[in-house]
Give the backbone structure.
Amino acid sequence: MHFVEFVQWLNDRHFSVALRGDDWPFPIIETVHILGLGVSVGLVIWIDLRLLGVTMLRHERVSEIVSQLEPWAMGGFIVMFISGFLLLLAEPMKCYTALSFRLKVIMLILAGLNVWYFHAKVYPTVAEWDEAPAVPWRARMVGILSLTLWFGIIIAGRWTAYF
Amino acid sequence: MSLLGLFPLSFFLWCEKTHLGLWIKNGTWTFATIETVHIMALTVLLGTLVVVDLRMLGFGMLRQSPSYLAQLMAPWTYGSLVVIILTGICMFVSEANRLSRSGPFAFKMLLLIFAVGTHFTIRAKVTGDAVSLGSRLSKVVASLSIVFWFGVALAGRAIPFL
C-alpha cells in the first residue's frame, strides 16, 4: 500500500470524519493547541534567551532556569503534541497534501533533535558554564535553532490552512 | 452581546472603508500574514505572563522573586502587547462590519479590558513589592490573570466559529 492510500484510508475513517465535522471537537482541540503555545514555546523562549546570554536572565544560573522551567514546558509540549495529533487525525489528507504541513513536520523533527542534542551533548557540562553570561557556542547554537525552529513551526502551522 | 450596542454601525462601516481596511481585506495574503504575527506575539505574551503567574502560584522559577521575574518580563510583555494590539486593530478594520455583530469578539474585548485593567493595577501592585503582599492575594491575582488572558485568546479563537 502506498502511503497516500493509507492517508486516504485514515481520512475516510469514522473518527476522522467525526473530528472534522461541524460540531465542537475540532474548534475545542484547535483552541487548546493555540492556547498551549503560551505554555510550551512561550516558556522555552526563556531558556533560549538565557542560552543566548540576553536579558537580565544572564545573571542567573542556566541550570536553575532549565530545571525550573523545563518540566512546565514539557507539560505544555505534551498538550501540543496530543492536540496536534488529533488535529492531524481530523484532516489527514489536507495535512498530507499541504506543503506547509510537511515543512512543519520537518521542523518539528529538527526541533526534537535539537532538544536531544542539548541534553545529550551540551547540558551535561553545565556546571562549568552555569554562571557565565556568555555560554559555550554549542549552547548558543541550540538557543538560536530552538527559537528559529519553533517560530517557523508556528508560521508553517498557521499556513497549513492555505497551502 | 455585540459591539453594535455600544457603537453605531456607521463606525464599523467607516473602518472597513479606510485605506488600511481595504488594503488588508483585498490583499491575498495580507490578513493571514498579520494574523500569523498576531499568533507569534500571543506566544510571547502568554509566555511572559505564565512565568510570573506560575511563580505567584508557587510553581516554576522559585529561586527568583515574583517582582524580579515581573521586571524581567515587563519589556517583553509590553512589546508583545503593542504588537498584538496593532495587528488586532489591522484585522479588525478589515472586517469591522462582521465583528460588530460577533458575540465572541465583544466578549473578547470585555475580557481584554479586564485583563489589561487588572494587569496594570492589582497585578502590578502584587509583583511590584519586593516583599510579598501575602501569598493568598498573589494566588488570586495570578489566577485572575491566567483566566482573563487565556480567556481573551479563547474568545478570539471562537470568532471564526460562531
User: Anything to note?
Assistant: Chain A has one domain: 3-159. Chain A touches chain B at residues 27, 30-31, 34-35, 37-39, 41-43, 45-46, 55-57, 60, 64-65, 68-69, 72, 151, 154-155, 158-159, 161-162 (CB under 8 Å).
